[in-house]
Amino acid sequence: MTRREFDGVTIECTQGDIAAQSDLDAVVNAANAELRTGGGVAGALHRAAGPGLEEECRPLAPITPGQAVITGAHRLPNRYVVHCLGPVHGVDEPAEQLLANCYREALQLADGHGVASIGFPSISTGAFGYPVEAAAQTAMDAVAGALSGLGRIRLVRFVLFGRGDFQVYAGALERLPANGSVSP
Ligand code: AR6
């Protein structure tokens, strides 16, 4: 676990399963446009949440790259799931901006629902093929840049499945300036 605090908000990185973060108010899904179950993160979250999650998602789909929508968490140990559609690497452009939008929109949406703690997976770096080094830098800068506009969120946790991904995200966290302010 690596952790830093920026003006009362903690950003941390941990290795683990996004579907098993029982101390967080909200978790983020690396969704598909149809908000259906799938592989990776979407599969893990929908499996743990049960069929009610897909049912609640149906009228909210389709979503576009960079967009986020929020639902209940059903049988997951959280209050909300925020579903983000990341860019497919080499297809959806401008990729960096679309990926940053996912993180910003997810934080704003969750904050507006009174969420105090939220967990993100590494959006787009699995089936969508985004290189993890670049994705981690964009994700960390987008989160740090959004913190000053948040009212309720006090904890942002990146939940990385693999050891290598954890180290990459932890490195990006360590590189943030002390005041966390990164221009968007
Ligand atoms: N907890 C945390 N991270 C995970 C987990 C988990 N349980 N499972 C996988 N990862 P992906 P994407 C990591 O493919 O690239 C889906 O099928 C994984 O190792 O879930 O945004 C959807 O239906 C990788 O580092 O998301 C979409 O069609 C990262 O999470 C599409 O894949 C993201 O991998 C979305 O692709």
Query: Which strands sit side by side, in order, in the main sheet?
Result: 1-2-7-6-3-5-4
Shape: globular
Proportion in helices = 25-40%
The CATH architecture can be given as: 3-Layer(aba) Sandwich
The assigned structural class equals: alpha/beta
Strand content: 15-25%
- What's the average pLDDT? 96
Weakly predicted, low-confidence segments: none
What is the CATH superfamily classification?
Answer: Leucine Aminopeptidase, subunit E, domain 1
Biggest β-sheet, characterized?
7 strands, mixed
What's the β-strand tally?
Answer: 7
| CATH domain class | Alpha Beta
Please outline what is shown here.
This protein has helices at 40-49, 51-57, 95-112, 132-146, 163-175, and strands at residues 2-6, 9-15, 26-30, 68-72, 80-84, 117-120, 155-160. The longest helix is centred in the middle third of the chain and has 18 residues, at 95-112.
